[in-house]
Every structure is written in C-alpha cells, then in structure tokens.
C-alpha cells in the first residue's frame, strides 16, 4: 500500500504559480483554512498579490527566484497549465507540485490530451496532427469542413485558433499558426456545452460539483448555469467520465472538464488541470467552493462538501461590463466578485457575478 | 436634503484599524468587492496582514504613522472599539472614519452606553456609576447582589469584570478595578441571550441579519445558533430596537447588539460598533455576510442581501480546540474558518466553524 503524504500543517505556505483571479481566489480559500500563500508571477502588481502573504515578481526563466520560491513553500500549485517545463523541473526538485506533472504534460498539448482521452475510451472531436501543409490537406479530406486549426500548445480563450469554413481557407489558417505545431479539429454538432468541476483528494477520494451549462461568446465564457440541462443518465455519465480522468492521472486537486452534449453522448472538449471559470458559481452555491476544494486536495486534507444548495447563474464581467457594477451592487439576488485589476481592457475578465435563486 | 458622499470607486483603499480575525475577514470581503485594504496594527504579524494589501506596524500614539496610514486610505474603519481618542482625532483630520465618532464615544464607555440606550427608551440592566467605595456601598444597597463591577472602558471577553455575590465582596472587587472608573451592573434574570447584527448604509437604509442565539462560557462566546429561540413578536422587537440604535447614531456600517430575552421583554446587554463574533454564521448562511455588509456600508455602496438560506450553528475554536481541526475538516456539514494565528494560547480565539443544515 502506498503511503499518502502527511496533510499540511496549519500555517503552512502554499506556493501558487500565477497571480491572476484564479490565484487570488485560491489565496482567499487557503487563508480560510489557516494557510498562507506565496504568489509567483512575472507581471507586476498581480491581483492575487492583494490578498496573498507574499509575492515574487520574476520570470519563469529565473531559476534563482524559482528556487527561493519553492523553498519558501510547503507545496506548489498553479492557476494555469501553460507553465514552462523547465520551470517545473526546477521547482519539483524542491517541493511537490500538485496537481502532478502528468496532468500538466497532457493538458499542455491539445494533441496529447486528445490521444489520452481516447485511450480512456472517451469521445472527442475528430482530430489530426498538423505539421505542415500536406498534413492539413490530408486531414481536411478526412475530417472535412467546417473545422478549426489550433496550436497544440499555449491556447486559451479562443487564442491560437483559426476557423476553416472551406478547404480554400487552409493556407490562411496555416499562416496564422506561424509555424507552431498544430491540430485540426472537426466540428461537433452539439446542443449545448456543460462542464464538470471535479476534485480528487490525495487519498484517492473523488467529489464532483454539479455540472454547469456554459455559454461562450467570442471564445470567452460568458455564463454558467446550474443546474445544467442534462438527463439523469447524462449527469451520471458526466461525473463518471470526470472521475475516470482523475483516476487515470492519479490527480490531486480540482480539474475542469468541458463536455459537448450530443445525440451520440457526451464528447470531451477539453480538460484544464486547475480551478475553472465555469466553477465560479460554487462560491455562492456550495458550502465548500472549488477554490477551497482545490486547496484541501493539494494540502492533503480531506475533500469538503460541494453539495449544491442553490440555483446559480454565473456571469463573467468582461471589459466594459465593469460599468454595470454600481447597478449590479443594488441587485439583491446578485453576489459580486471583483478581481482588483487596475486596467479595464476589452476581452479582459474583470470579475463575475453569481445570481442566486432557490434550488429548483 | 443632506447629500450622501460618493460611493468608493473600485480599487479604492479601505484602511482598517486592528489586524485580528475581524480585520482579516473584513479584508477578504473588501477584496471581493474590488477594494484593497491597509491594516494598522501595533502588534507584529497580524492575522489580517496575510490577506491585506498593506500593513503598517505602529503604535496608536505614532502620529506620523497614523497620518501616513490615513492618507493612503480613502475611508477608515476598525475591527474594535477601544481605539484611543487622540488617534481618532489625528485620523479624522485626513479621512472619514466609519462608523462615526459618536458610535465610538458611546460604546467605549459602558456608562455612557447605558445612559444612551435608556435615552432611546430601551431596557438595560440596572446600573450605577462607581467612582469609589462610597458609590459602591450606595449602589449595592439599591441594586443588591449578585451584581458585577465592570471598568467603564476597555473591557472585552469578560476582562475588567468582577462578580459580587454579596456586599462583603465590595472591597475585593473595587481593588480589582485598580482605580479605574467603574460601573456596577445588577444581574438580569434571562432565559437566553440573542444578538442582532444590524447594518445601516450611508443612505440610511437599514438591514438586519436574522437574530442568533448565543452561549458564553468563561465570558467568551462559544456558540451562536440561528434561528434563535424567539417568538415572532420578539424577533420584530429585536430588529426594531437595533434599527432604533442605528438611526439614533446616524450609523454607517455593521453594529452588534446583544440582548437578554426575559419575561419582561428584551434587555440590551451591550452594543459593539463593528462586525461581531456572533455574526460569523452569516459567512455560510447568507449570500452577503456581515463582513461584506460592513464594507458595503463604509464604502458608501448599497447594502447587500443578508437573507438567511440555511440553519447554522457557529462554534468558536478557542485555544486547544485547534487540535480538533483534522477531525472537523472531515465533517461534511462543517465549514472551517481559521485565523492564521501563530501561537495557540488558552482562551485565544483561533478560528470558528459553521455547522450548516437545511433551513428549518
């Protein structure tokens, strides 16, 4: 029997890579459990720094800063998956990284991720590896259009993607990849998208939040609604497949799983080895939200109670949506969550609101 | 018509006097609304500092530090009422203090507070001003025993109090006051104690959380239970009298009102011009908790939704209770709130738990 590591003691330091809103809300959750946090973030004045005990402002190439950061922490976690591999190598010689390296390796590369998911017997969109023009021609012949060409690495919020309506778009789309390894993905006919925010503890216990239904615009999540429109069979499927993924990765922490709901079952869109925008509703819908659940897991503590006690619609506040804050603050059914970012930019996630109603 | 001040802009700084657990939880609530906080605290490494943007470690006699602190903030609030008057004088020349000076003046002195409450037509325990031995003899003849001799100022958690079982205890009790101005309070026969956590916005709007029922041991709050055992008439009385106090003080922020439930109505025990230990249940029982409600008020924002959605029993974790944290972390109905204090001491409030059940 494998021995599980000791749970983190009260007062221990959790190192968090990335100082954006996810790191910020992880920090708050960590404080609630009696931990302190240390944020590592290349950008100046990160939102998470306002609520963290310590902040290191340094690049992911700064091995001395990475080492000092790792040594200050008892365990290291992260708010985003695109951490340079070399930085992870440095950090891991000093402290455990949770969720572990395998989850990062897989989710950092769209191709690796899709192969992994299929290996678990899960459905994905049709896809093909695209190293150059010949690959693309062959793949388009097989997958057809419409399709999306995506960089294999470092994509988020619709970035690094190009849509092909017809084969004639191939050259333009390939040029947009700028030589980066890419993937062609076929379109999936789906009625709606849902996501499961799933957690696995260090002891192997699994707990999933109720699936949420997501609406995107311009590649950015706009709203998540719980409960999602799912039959009870679909709900069970969604949770079982998320647990399947967690167990295959021997995962520790919270994982976001995006699913397309189709006539031929649930199709996995993508996974994210971290707390997830579509799980923000849990802050006002559950006693233990996704942030605390993640901290509990990476700290080696037991998972908490993620049962849903309300219906919630989470809406992201993006760019100029911030002008609506005074009005939103007056709405009694609306809970505000603002990220403390100094500059409002178009497309930038500035906060979110949770609209809470009685559980249906 | 009096013009209300402009609401605080996003990103504004809220200065908080005191860096204990109340300042800590106020800081977290402020961050949720997009504010940053600056803590002023004489003691090193205050719990609130772990989740605040800035900390000033300086004495309340340090006028230069107070001035710099005030100038860094847009508004100043506090987590405790015993702030030296001279410090308040310095701060107020630079920035508004909310709740205002009148609430502090009254609640800093038990005698002034009782006179104020009676002036509003509210019931208090019988009391008498005690400047020396003669006063005490006369007061004991009128009020009788058992009674409690209390310092007029700077008492909390049962400190600065001496119980008199008989007139013969007078000399010992007076010696314990060490020459400080004191107050003799008669005992009140009551069935139980409740408290109302009441909020008033800058526009005069009032919102009260559902009353909680409090159990003390050794002068320290142990548990608060909502709903409290109250008839609907008593509940209405409790909320109306809290609103009466708020309006009389032109109060801005959250106020705690402790009440004895007796056969001849509700008797006001004491008021605290701040968030209150007996309001911690709101963190897991309401969409907007007492900390956010206080921040909304002092920021000049509209009050939020404090409607109760669950039954809650709040239990303080005091001293060695912290040894129970691993067990508490496994209980699914229990939400943990740990204060990040380095040293466990007997009688020290280290955290609390909220036990959540479906609303009855």
Automatic annotation (TrEMBL), chains A, B:
Binding site for ATP: 110, 150, 155-161, 185-188, 193, 216, 269-270
GO MF terms, alphabetically ordered: 5-(carboxyamino)imidazole ribonucleotide synthase activity
Keyword Ligase: yes
Domain of life, source organism: Bacteria
Keyword Lipid metabolism set for record: no
ATP-grasp domain: residues covered: 114-299
EC number: 6.3.4.18
Transmembrane spans: none
UniProt keyword annotations, A-Z: ATP-binding, Ligase, Nucleotide-binding, Purine biosynthesis
Biological or metabolic pathway of the protein: Purine metabolism; IMP biosynthesis via de novo pathway; 5-amino-1-(5-phospho-D-ribosyl)imidazole-4-carboxylate from 5-amino-1-(5-phospho-D-ribosyl)imidazole (N5-CAIR route): step 1/2
Catalysed reaction equations from the record: 5-amino-1-(5-phospho-beta-D-ribosyl)imidazole + hydrogencarbonate + ATP = 5-carboxyamino-1-(5-phospho-D-ribosyl)imidazole + ADP + phosphate + 2 H(+)
Enzyme type, top EC level: ligase
PANTHER family attached to this UniProt entry: PHOSPHORIBOSYLAMINOIMIDAZOLE CARBOXYLASE, PURINE BIOSYNTHESIS PROTEIN 6/7, PUR6/7
Physiological role: Catalyzes the ATP-dependent conversion of 5-aminoimidazole ribonucleotide (AIR) and HCO(3)- to N5-carboxyaminoimidazole ribonucleotide (N5-CAIR). Catalyzes the ATP-dependent conversion of 5-aminoimidazole ribonucleotide (AIR) and HCO(3)(-) to N5-carboxyaminoimidazole ribonucleotide (N5-CAIR).
Database matches in HAMAP family: PurK (MF_01928)
Known partners and oligomeric status: Homodimer.
Family: Belongs to the PurK/PurT family.
Name by which UniProt lists this protein: N5-carboxyaminoimidazole ribonucleotide synthase
Native organism: Sedimentitalea todarodis
Lineage: Bacteria, Pseudomonadati, Pseudomonadota, Alphaproteobacteria, Rhodobacterales
């Amino acid at each position: 029997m494998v021995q599980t590591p000791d749970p983190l003691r009260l007062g221990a330091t959790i190192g968090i890579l990335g100082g954006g809103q996810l790191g910020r809300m992880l920090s708050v959750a960590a404080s609630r459990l009696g931990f302190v946090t240390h944020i590592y973030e290349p950008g100046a004045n990160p939102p998470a720094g306002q609520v963290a005990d310590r902040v290191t402002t340094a690049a992911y190439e700064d091995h001395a800063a990475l080492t000092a950061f790792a040594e200050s922490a008892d365990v290291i976690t992260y708010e985003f998956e695109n951490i340079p591999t070399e930085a992870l190598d440095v950090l891991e010689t000093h402290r455990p990284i949770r969720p572990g390296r395998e989850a990062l390796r897989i989710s950092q590369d769209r191709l690796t991720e899709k192969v992994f998911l299929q290996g678990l017997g899960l459905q994905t969109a049709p896809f093909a590896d695209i190293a150059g023009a010949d690959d693309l021609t062959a793949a388009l012949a097989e997958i057809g259009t419409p399709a999306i060409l995506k960089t294999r690495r470092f994509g988020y919020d619709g970035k690094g993607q190009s849509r092909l309506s017809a084969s004639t778009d191939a050259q333009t789309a390939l040029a947009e990849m700028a030589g980066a390894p890419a993937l062609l993905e076929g379109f999936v006919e789906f009625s709606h998208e849902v996501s499961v925010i799933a957690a696995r503890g260090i002891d192997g216990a699994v707990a999933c939040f109720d699936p949420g239904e997501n609406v995107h615009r311009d590649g950015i999540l706009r709203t998540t609604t719980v409960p999602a429109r799912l039959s009870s069979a679909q709900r069970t499927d969604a949770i079982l497949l998320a647990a399947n993924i967690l167990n295959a990765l021997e995962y520790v922490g919270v994982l976001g799983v995006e699913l397309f709901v189709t006539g031929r079952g649930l199709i996995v869109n993508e996974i994210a080895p971290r707390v997830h925008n579509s799980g923000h509703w849990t802050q006002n819908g559950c006693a233990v939200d996704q942030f605390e659940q993640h901290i509990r897991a990476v700290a080696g503590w037991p998972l908490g109670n993620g049962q849903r006690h309300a219906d919630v619609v989470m809406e992201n506040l993006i760019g100029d949506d911030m002008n609506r804050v005074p009005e939103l603050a007056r709405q009694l059914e609306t809970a505000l969550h603002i990220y403390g970012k100094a500059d409002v930019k178009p497309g930038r996630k500035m906060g979110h609101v949770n609209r809470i109603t009685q559980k249906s």
